Amino acid sequence: MRFQIFEFFLKTIYVFSNSSDKQNKNMKFDENWVKEWINFDIGRKDLLEQIERIGIERNRNKNIPQSKYFDNFIVGEIIDHYNVVRNKDTFKIFKVNIGEKTLKIVCDSPNCQLNMKVAVFRYSYEEEHGKKDRSNKFSEGYLCRYDQLFFLKNNKNIIEIPKHLEVGSNIGKYLAQYSHRVFNTDSISNRKDFSCILGICRDISAINNKKINLKRKTIEKNVHLNHKGRANFYIKDPEYCPIVFSKIIKGVHVYSKTPDWMKERLSWNDFSTVDTINNIVNYVTLEMGQHVSVYDCRSIKGNIEIRKSKGNENIIFQKKKLNLIQDTLVISDENSTMSIAGMIKNEKFEINQNTSEILLICAFFNNQSIHKDIEHYFSEFCLHRSHNKDPDAIFNTLERASELITKFCGGIQGDVTEIVFKKYLPKLKEIVLDVKKIHRMIGCVLSIDKISQILVNLGFHVFSNIGLNKIKIKIPFWRRDIFSDEDIIDEIIRIYGYDNLPKRINNIPNIQENHMDSLHFLKKLLVYRGYHEIITYSFIDEKIQNLLFPRQNYIKLPDPMSSHMSVMRTSLIPGMLSTIQYNQRRQNNKIKIFESGHVFFTKKEMDNKAKMDQRLMLSAAITSHQNDRSWLQNSRETDFFDIKGDLEIILRSIIIKNYDVVFKKSISSTFDKEQFAKIYLCGEFLGHIGMLHREIERRLEINNRVFIFEILINKLLNNKNLSLSEKYEEISKFPINHRDISMIFREEIPAHEILIECQKVSLSLQNGIVVFSHIFDMYRGDPIKSGYKSISIGFTIQSSKKTMQEHEISRIVDLFVERINTKFSSNLRKK
Q1: How far is CA 621 from the centre of its chain?
Q2: DSSP letter at 431?
Q3: For residue 256, which of 279, 290, 289, 222 has the smallest C-alpha distance?
Q4: Staple 457 to which of 29, 206, 667, 760, CB 3.0 to 4.6 Å?
Q5: Ranges for the B5 domain (predicted)?
Q6: Domain at 737-828, CATH homologous superfamily
Q7: Rg (Cα) of the chain, in Å, rounded?
Q8: One fold for 430-500 and 512-717
C-alpha cells in the first residue's frame, strides 16, 4: 500500500513535468542557463518573446515542479546497514536517521554509503510498523533516485543530498533551485548554430545590446607549436583538418561526482550521464556546439597524426571490430587508429576507472571531406559533432572543457598544443550592402552606426569606410545561411524589431503578385483547352539534361537527394517527358499536360564569376493520339498545329495586337528539324515550340510523337500590350462586306509578315471601320514564274456606324494593296 502511494505520487510529478516532452534532439534550456552567458535582468515572459523573435520555434515548455510538490520528502542520513535473508534472498537494510526517529529502509543501490545524506519518502500511515513492497522487502520508507525527483532519465542512483542540510528538514528547500521551466525549442535546419547555447545566446545578446561572457581567441596566423609537456601532433592532410588544439591533463579522478545542475541539463537534452569527464564533454558540446574528444594517455603510443586511412585499418566499436574504408579521415598514434575524425572513437582509447592522465583534442574538420564518412559510419550524435560552427571557437571550447574537468575531477593542466594552417581555413564570404536599399526595404532610416552595431553584435565583421552609404560585411563561418544582401537586411530587421518598423500600407504595386494572378489566368485557359497541370521536382537526372540540352550549362548539386536528382533543371521539358513516360507505361496515351515553375541557369558576370539565374517558365506538351472515336466524324491524330493553335489562342486572349507574336522556323538538336520554331514577342525571344526529335523519343522509350511549347512568363507578362481585363463591344448591326485579292510575292517572304502589315492597316482605320484579313489560298506554278508564289487574301469589312458604299469599300482595299506593294514589292495577280 505504502509503495503504491509513493509510486503514484512520483508518477503525478513526472506527468506534471513531462506531459509534452517528446523524445527528440531539440535544444532544451532554461533562463538560468541563458543568464550565465549574458549579464542582464529579464523576466521569463520577455525572454520567451525574444526567443521567438530570433526565429526559434518554441514547443510547449517542460515544467520542473515547484518545491511545494515535495512536502512529503525529507532529508535523512544513513547511520548503519546490515543484510537480511528471507526465503533464500538477501536484502540490504539501511538505518536512516530522519531526526525524530530511525527508519529501516530496503535499498539495493550501489552508491549508498554510511553518513550519506539522502532524500527519504516516509510512508503516510505511521501507525503501521512496516509494509512489504512488491519485491517482498521489509521497508519503512523509500530512498529516492535521481530519475524520480530530478528527472535524470538514465540515472538510477540514490540522490546524495549536500552535507549542510539539516536531518529531518523538508527537501523542498533544497529543490527550490530546480523550480523553473525549461524551454523546449525546435532546431532550424539552416541555423546549425542554434543547436548550442552559445548560438542562441549570441542572438539574444544582440537584441539586448549585451556582450556574451566569452573570451575569443582569433586565428590570425599560421601556428605549429610543440613544446615540452605537450602532445606530439602532426597533420598529414591539412586541407581536411586545418586546425587542431590539444591539451594534456594529469591527475584526474574520472569517477568524481558530477554536479546535479550539469546532469539535469544533460538529461533535458537526452544525454545519458556516464562518468564525470564524458558528462563534461557532452555538456561543453551543448554549450559551444563543438565536440572535444577525450583519450586515455596510457593507450597512446608515440606521435599522433591526423591523416587519411589506408585500406586495412579498423577500430573497436561497441565491442566489435569495425573495418574502415580507404581514405577515411582518422586520428591515430604510431600503432593504431584512435578514432574516425569527429565521429567514432576506438574503445581501446576510452577512459576508465584507472585513467589518471587524459588528452583533450578539439579540431576543425572540413565538412565536405567527412561527409561520406558520416553516411558510412553513422553513429549517435555524430552529425552534431561533425558540424563545425566556428574555427575561432575551438580554443574556447578546449579551455571550457579543461576548466570544468579540473574543477570537478581535479588534475593539473598542461600547455595547449596549437596547429593551424590558415591557408586551408574556409574563406569568409563578403557582401557589400547599400544602406539606401535597407531604408527602401524597411521604410525607415537607420544610421550606419546602428546597422554596424547590430551586425557586430551578431558576430559579423563590418567595414563601413568603403564608400558613400556602402558597408562591406564578412559573414562568420557559422552563418552559412547568409547568401545575399537581402539576408543581411533580414538579420537587421530581426534584431531591430518588426514592431519598430513603421505601420503603414505599402502603396507600391506588387508586381510579383500581379504576375501570379496573370499566370493563374493562363493556366485556367490551358485547363479549358483540356490540359492537366503537373508538378515535378526542380532536380533532374544529369543524363537527361545532357541528352536534351548537350551544350547548355547547368548547376550541379554538391549533395543531391539521389543520382537521379543531381542537377537543377534548365527547362520544364524533362519533367514533361518523365510524366509522359509514366503514363504511357500505364496504357494512357492521350496526354495533354502543362507545368509552370522556375528553371535555373549559371551566367558569368563582368568579373567572370558564375552567378545563378532563375526564370519563370510555362510549358505544355501533347502526344500524338487518335481523337475519340465517333460515328459523327472521322478520327485523326493530333499534330504540331494542335498545340500551336492552343498557344495562339492563349496569346490572342491576353495580347491586343496579334501581330506582336511571330513564329520563326529554326533548328534545335532537341526537336525535329522540320517542325520547330522560335517564338518572338515584339522582336524579343519568348520561347519555342516543336515536335520532339525522334532519337530522343527512342532513347526515352516514348512511343508516340511529342509536341511541346515553352515560354518565358516574365517576358510575356511584362509586355506593354498585355491585357487581362475583359472588354465588351457592341455588335454592329450593319452589313458585312467580303472582298478577295490575289498578289504575287517572292518565295522567301513569310505569310505571317503579310498578315502583320494587313493588321497594321486595319488598326489605322477610323470611323468605326473594322477589317479582318486572312490568307485562304497559296499557288505555285504556271503562269507564276519560278521563285515567286501567289497568295490570296480575304478581307471582311464592316462599319459600326453605317452601311458602307462600294466606293468606300474599294478605297479601303486599295489601302491594303498599296501598303503590301510598298512593303514587299508585290503585284496584283491579273489571272
Answers
A1: 32
A2: E
A3: 279
A4: 206
A5: 426-503
A6: Ferrodoxin-fold anticodon-binding domain (3.30.70.380)
A7: 40
A8: no
